[in-house]
Design brief:
This protein is an alpha+beta fold. The protein is 24% helix and 29% strand. The mean pLDDT is 96.
């Protein structure tokens, strides 16, 4: 049995408190009590001698790229861009002679995690990077640093599953795991209008999807060719050239079709053409030269109130059941203004504490509204932000191979109910791997099924031209939605997602037959995929089964469960599950009476 590792505070006058604990995971918080100015060092964890240390680098379209750190010399991962996963992921796996450990920092800004070999083991140092995040305390003041979580197990997979399970307990279940259609990739802001949106919403409702979400392009000047990026921040203006009847009317018409309404907002951002910069200069974050950093400083009380009012106004106007909260810029070290209630060296620190407060206020005010975090896709995904939202979007690109690469990494940090990624979307732009057309005959039903099944293991939504989809594929999509809502979603709500193989990698690299297991109590959904290039099916071996129990093994296909066989847990674990055809398969294993 592995003893609970301790977090040793790094700062003078700091105390570490164990605030959450389970059999296989622990979360610590460090409180600083000594007056002065400090680099935000959190603490150190001393572990047995390491046999491997692994993490992930991260960038746009390159999220969860594996990286191995040396075990016999000092090494570190860090982020200085101001977004937690724009550069690397604040997560580290350490396999040792005594077992495996995973460590994560609950923080959305700049950070640093380092490994240092010792005479008889390895020391993991966890810190906020000092850029924009120095701690300045007066006499009698205290400050609690972001939390650190540690999980452990016999293997990296079991330790990572323990972490995801542990972190799921920090956040209430929230609103239902609604399914969605989102307009963005097939239409962007160039082709979206109220007629296009409502036509697709009607099809989405017929398919059984539950929310139609209006992405970027609804706001700003009344110009049909206006560009969303420049208009960000003018949330009080509706682009009447595209939406002449306004948002309230559009939301009512959407609900009349039998589907809920959702909406996108980049609430922190201020675009180059946004009028809000001139109308509300007191909320703008600025850098050392006094120039705008392109976002609202949430270290400022005025900035917090402005952002809260912008989002709550949208919810009140539209009765939105889903808010997609994006963030498409790198704040770096953050705001340096001296009139925002923060200092010149802690602007980023105060911004993220303010962001967390605003998100908590919105969740309290609108508990039935899904709050999804997105940041140029997956560039702000961390346990800190996860404590304040319902879902986090994994990546902008979503072709199947890339999605399964990201999923392999994200599942080792967060529970599946907090993960969202679409099956391969129809992009307007050019992309070497992403391009797909669901209206023609080039894509086969097997290829389509594989794309859909890859995104059924967590929250589910699609971003495609539903009104143009080939009828056969539309029928198959309806079956997948039915399967998700009736069979898979209950497992996502309470379960953990465990990678069963090594990681697949982009551009036909890595493991070419990845498999994943979605487990909740005594039910296990096992998903297998064959990625090009690959040979025939190899056995997929689930984990965590009771060897003495009998399991009903069903195949989930065409919206139905088809009984295949009954087998003992020991037999399944040893011999595995094997498919004979196709490029994907879903098995459901349920303990039999």
């Amino acid at each position: 049995m592995i003893e609970t590792p301790e977090l040793i505070p790094a700062l003078p006058g700091a105390e570490a408190g164990l605030i959450r604990h389970s059999a296989e995971a622990a979360t610590y918080a460090v409180t600083v009590t000594q007056a002065g100015e400090w680099d935000p060092q959190v603490g150190s964890i001393v572990l047995p001698r390491a046999t491997s240390i692994d993490g992930f680098t991260s960038g746009w379209g390159l999220e969860y790229q594996p990286v191995a750190l040396p075990v016999d010399e000092s090494a570190e991962l860090e982020v200085t861009t101001g977004r937690s996963t724009q550069g690397a992921v604040p997560w580290l796996a350490i396999e040792t002679e005594a077992g495996a450990y995973v460590v994560t920092l609950h923080w959305s800004g700049n950070w640093r995690i380092a490994s240092r070999p010792t005479d008889d083991g390895v020391r993991i140092d966890v810190a906020l990077h000092p850029d924009g995040q120095r701690i300045i305390l007066g006499d009698g003041e205290t400050f609690t640093l972001p939390e650190v979580s540690i999980a452990w197990g016999e293997t990296r997979a079991s330790a990572a599953a323990a972490l995801a399970r542990h972190l799921s307990e920090q956040v209430p279940a929230g609103p239902p795991l609604l399914t969605e259609w989102n307009h963005w990739w097939p239409y962007e802001d160039a082709e979206i209008s109220e007629d296009v949106f409502l036509a697709n919403a009607a099809v989405a409702a017929d398919l059984g999807l539950e929310v139609a979400l209006l992405d970027a392009g609804w706001f700003g000047r009344p110009e049909a060719d206006s560009q969303w990026f420049a208009e960000r921040g003018d949330w009080h203006r509706v682009n009447s050239a595209r939406f002449p009847h306004g948002l309230a009317w559009l939301a009512d018409q959407t609900r009349a079709l039998g589907i809920e309404f959702g909406i996108w907002i980049e609430a922190e951002a201020i675009g180059a053409r946004a009028s809000i910069a001139g109308e509300r200069p007191e909320v703008v974050a600025t850098g050392d030269a006094g120039s705008s950093l392109g976002y609202v400083c949430l270290g400022s009380p005025a900035g917090q109130e402005h952002v809260f009012a912008s989002v709550s106004g949208l919810v009140e106007t539209t009765r939105a059941r889903w808010i997609k909260w994006d963030f498409n810029l790198d704040p770096g070290a953050g705001c340096t203004r001296d009139d925002h209630g923060h200092g010149s060296e802690d602007g980023l620190l105060r911004h993220y504490l303010g962001l967390y407060d605003v998100l908590d206020r919105l969740r309290a005010a609108y508990p039935e509204t899904v709050l999804e975090a997105c940041s140029s896709g997956g560039l702000r995904i961390d346990a800190g932000l996860a404590a304040h939202v319902d879902a986090l979007f994994l990546s902008d690109p979503d072709w199947t191979e890339h999605h399964l690469t990201c999923l392999w990494g994200a599942a080792q940090l967060l529970p599946p109910r907090q993960l969202l990624h679409w099956p391969q979307s129809e992009w307007r732009g050019e992309h070497r791997f992403q391009k797909v057309d669901y209206s023609g005959t080039l894509i086969t039903s097997d290829q389509f099924d594989t794309k859909m099944r890859a995104a059924l293991l967590h929250r589910f939504g699609v971003s495609v031209r539903l009104t143009e989809m080939r009828p056969e594929l539309l029928r198959r999509l309806r079956d997948h939605v039915d399967s998700y809502r009736s069979v898979i979603r209950p497992l996502v709500e309470t379960g953990v997602l465990i990678p069963l193989t090594e990681q697949p990698l982009r551009e036909e690299k890595g493991w070419r037959q990845p498999a994943y297991q979605l487990t909740a109590d005594d039910r296990h959904l096992v998903a297998g995929f064959r990625l090009h290039p690959t040979g025939g099916w190899e056995p997929v071996r689930p984990v965590g089964l009771d060897p003495m129990a009998t399991y009903a093994v069903d195949v989930l296909d065409d919206g139905e469960l088809r009984r295949a066989e009954r087998r003992t847990g020991k037999d399944v674990a040893e011999a595995g599950l094997t498919a004979t055809a196709g490029t994907s398969i879903l098995w459901l294993l349920s303990r039999a009476e």
